[in-house]
Amino acid sequence: ELKVEQNPLFLSMQEGKNYTIYCNYSTTSDRLYWYRQDPGKSLESLFVLLSNGAVKQEGRLMASLDTKARLSTLHITAAVHDLSATYFCAVDTRFGNEKLTFGTGTRLTIIP
Amino acid sequence: DAGITQSPRYKITETGRQVTLMCHQTWSHSYMFWYRQDLGHGLRLIYYSAAADITDKGEVPDGYVVSRSKTENFPLTLESATRSQTSVYFCASSGTGQGSDQPQHFGDGTRLSIL
After folding, report:
1. Which of A30, A80, B13, B29 has the CA that lies 20 to 30 A from B101?
2. Mapped to the 3 state alphabet, what secondary structure does A16-38 carry?
3. Is the pLDDT of residue B64 over 70?
4. What is the mean pLDDT of residues B6-22?
């Protein structure tokens, strides 16, 4: 059974600081997704990482994938208040059926 | 408008009642999914469908029924609602099969309370 663990679960950080959210998964997979969710809202796709060594960046967010270590990171650079949200990683099961297993999420709060 | 829509957005019902949550997408995506979101559990897959008339169980299917007679619709039915099914339910869809770089797209969710 595929397990996906994120840490930390809660993160408060000051504006302007850098931090990293980690996503570990238990079985082989080469597709990983990052989503953002604002309180009471839907999930918004941030990144799709398809291969070992994949790195994608959008604004102050950068995601990477190491399939050998079964680890993905979401790095936040010079955080701003607008980045406050819950971030989820999700891993596919590699059986071609598009099923995803989600981590429990990291609730990020940016403090002015 | 193109997209994925869920209805109703909010629903309050009583234990033992049947309730159906609707999901409609306009992209002609092959795959559709139902998740529930609960504090401390993230999103858990209830059922999914690879195409019309093809459905399969996810992680937490007990107490739920789905159907997919048309590609664009994927209703979720709670046949006899229980309080443990109080949750936020999300429908999602994705377009293609293995190797796709397309993420799942999510609806706005249905907040269901069972009294």
Report:
1. A80
2. CCCEEEEEEECCCCCCEEEEEEC
3. yes
4. 97
